[in-house]
Protein backbone atom coordinates (compact mmCIF):
# COMPACT_ATOMS: atom_id res chain seq x y z
CA UNK A 1 0.00 0.00 0.00
CA UNK A 2 2.80 2.43 0.76
CA UNK A 3 4.30 2.07 -2.68
CA UNK A 4 1.28 3.46 -4.55
CA UNK A 5 1.44 7.06 -3.23
CA UNK A 6 5.21 7.20 -3.69
CA UNK A 7 4.97 5.87 -7.25
CA UNK A 8 2.24 8.36 -8.14
CA UNK A 9 4.25 11.22 -6.72
CA UNK A 10 7.26 10.13 -8.74
CA UNK A 11 5.22 9.82 -11.95
CA UNK A 12 3.60 13.21 -11.48
CA UNK A 13 7.01 14.80 -11.03
CA UNK A 14 8.28 13.29 -14.27
CA UNK A 15 5.10 14.12 -16.19
CA UNK A 16 5.98 17.80 -15.84
CA UNK A 17 9.30 17.21 -17.61
CA UNK A 18 9.65 16.52 -21.30
CA UNK A 19 10.32 12.94 -22.34
CA UNK A 20 13.80 13.99 -23.52
CA UNK A 21 14.59 15.38 -20.06
CA UNK A 22 13.39 12.19 -18.37
CA UNK A 23 15.48 10.06 -20.73
CA UNK A 24 18.49 12.32 -20.20
CA UNK A 25 18.04 12.11 -16.43
CA UNK A 26 17.78 8.32 -16.49
CA UNK A 27 20.86 8.00 -18.71
CA UNK A 28 22.77 10.46 -16.51
CA UNK A 29 21.95 8.48 -13.37
CA UNK A 30 23.18 5.26 -15.00
CA UNK A 31 26.39 7.02 -16.08
CA UNK A 32 26.94 8.44 -12.58
CA UNK A 33 26.34 5.04 -10.95
CA UNK A 34 28.87 3.38 -13.27
CA UNK A 35 31.43 6.15 -12.78
CA UNK A 36 31.02 6.20 -8.99
CA UNK A 37 31.63 2.46 -8.79
CA UNK A 38 34.70 2.71 -10.99
CA UNK A 39 36.14 5.66 -9.05
CA UNK A 40 35.67 3.84 -5.73
CA UNK A 41 37.44 0.76 -7.10
CA UNK A 42 40.32 2.77 -8.57
CA UNK A 43 43.76 3.17 -7.04
CA UNK A 44 44.07 6.85 -8.04
CA UNK A 45 42.14 9.40 -10.05
CA UNK A 46 42.89 12.74 -11.69
CA UNK A 47 40.33 15.41 -12.61
CA UNK A 48 40.73 17.57 -15.69
CA UNK A 49 38.33 20.22 -17.01
CA UNK A 50 36.29 17.82 -19.18
CA UNK A 51 37.55 14.40 -18.17
CA UNK A 52 38.42 12.10 -15.32
CA UNK A 53 41.21 9.56 -15.52
CA UNK A 54 41.87 6.81 -13.04
CA UNK A 55 44.23 3.92 -12.53
CA UNK A 56 42.71 0.56 -11.68
CA UNK A 57 44.70 -2.69 -11.58
CA UNK A 58 47.45 -1.15 -13.70
CA UNK A 59 45.05 0.10 -16.39
CA UNK A 60 44.36 3.75 -17.21
CA UNK A 61 40.63 4.37 -17.53
CA UNK A 62 39.42 7.68 -18.91
CA UNK A 63 35.96 9.21 -19.19
CA UNK A 64 36.07 12.21 -21.48
CA UNK A 65 33.80 14.55 -23.39
CA UNK A 66 34.15 13.61 -27.05
CA UNK A 67 32.00 15.70 -29.39
CA UNK A 68 28.58 15.52 -27.67
CA UNK A 69 29.25 12.22 -25.93
CA UNK A 70 30.99 10.94 -22.84
CA UNK A 71 33.19 8.06 -23.82
CA UNK A 72 35.14 5.55 -21.80
CA UNK A 73 38.57 4.40 -22.87
CA UNK A 74 40.96 1.88 -21.34
CA UNK A 75 44.69 2.48 -21.95
CA UNK A 76 43.78 5.09 -24.61
CA UNK A 77 41.93 2.49 -26.69
CA UNK A 78 38.28 1.86 -27.34
CA UNK A 79 35.26 4.06 -27.81
CA UNK A 80 32.54 3.02 -25.34
CA UNK A 81 29.78 5.65 -25.28
CA UNK A 82 28.39 5.95 -21.74
CA UNK A 83 26.32 9.15 -22.17
CA UNK A 84 25.16 11.05 -25.25
CA UNK A 85 23.74 14.46 -26.18
CA UNK A 86 25.98 16.23 -23.65
CA UNK A 87 26.61 19.95 -24.15
CA UNK A 88 29.07 20.24 -21.29
CA UNK A 89 30.43 18.40 -18.28
CA UNK A 90 32.57 19.67 -15.42
CA UNK A 91 34.33 17.83 -12.61
CA UNK A 92 35.45 19.41 -9.34
CA UNK A 93 36.74 18.21 -6.00
CA UNK A 94 34.42 18.12 -3.02
CA UNK A 95 35.46 17.32 0.58
CA UNK A 96 33.67 13.96 0.34
CA UNK A 97 34.39 13.15 -3.29
CA UNK A 98 33.78 14.59 -6.74
CA UNK A 99 31.07 16.94 -7.96
CA UNK A 100 29.94 16.48 -11.56
CA UNK A 101 27.84 19.02 -13.44
CA UNK A 102 26.12 17.87 -16.66
CA UNK A 103 24.37 20.14 -19.17
CA UNK A 104 22.30 18.65 -21.99
CA UNK A 105 19.93 20.97 -23.81
CA UNK A 106 17.52 22.33 -21.21
CA UNK A 107 18.51 19.61 -18.74
CA UNK A 108 21.21 20.31 -16.16
CA UNK A 109 22.15 18.45 -13.00
CA UNK A 110 24.86 18.23 -10.38
CA UNK A 111 25.90 14.95 -8.82
CA UNK A 112 28.14 14.14 -5.88
CA UNK A 113 30.23 11.00 -6.20
CA UNK A 114 31.18 9.80 -2.77
CA UNK A 115 34.71 8.46 -2.99
CA UNK A 116 35.13 7.73 0.71
CA UNK A 117 32.93 6.25 3.37
CA UNK A 118 32.27 8.60 6.29
CA UNK A 119 30.86 7.72 9.68
CA UNK A 120 29.45 10.22 12.16
CA UNK A 121 30.77 9.61 15.64
UniProtKB/TrEMBL annotation:
- Name the UniProt key words of this record, in alphabetical order: Signal
Q: Which Pfam families match?
A: ComGF (PF15980)
Q: Which organism is this entry from?
A: Paenalkalicoccus suaedae
Q: What residue stretch is flagged as signal peptide?
A: 1-17
Q: Could you identify this protein by its name?
A: ComGF family competence protein
Its lineage reads: Bacteria, Bacillati, Bacillota, Bacilli, Bacillales
Q: Give the InterPro entries listed for this entry.
A: ComGF
Amino acid sequence: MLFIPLTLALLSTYSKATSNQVTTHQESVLFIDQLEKEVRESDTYVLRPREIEMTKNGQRIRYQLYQSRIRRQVNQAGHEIVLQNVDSIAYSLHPKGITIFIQSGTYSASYLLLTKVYFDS
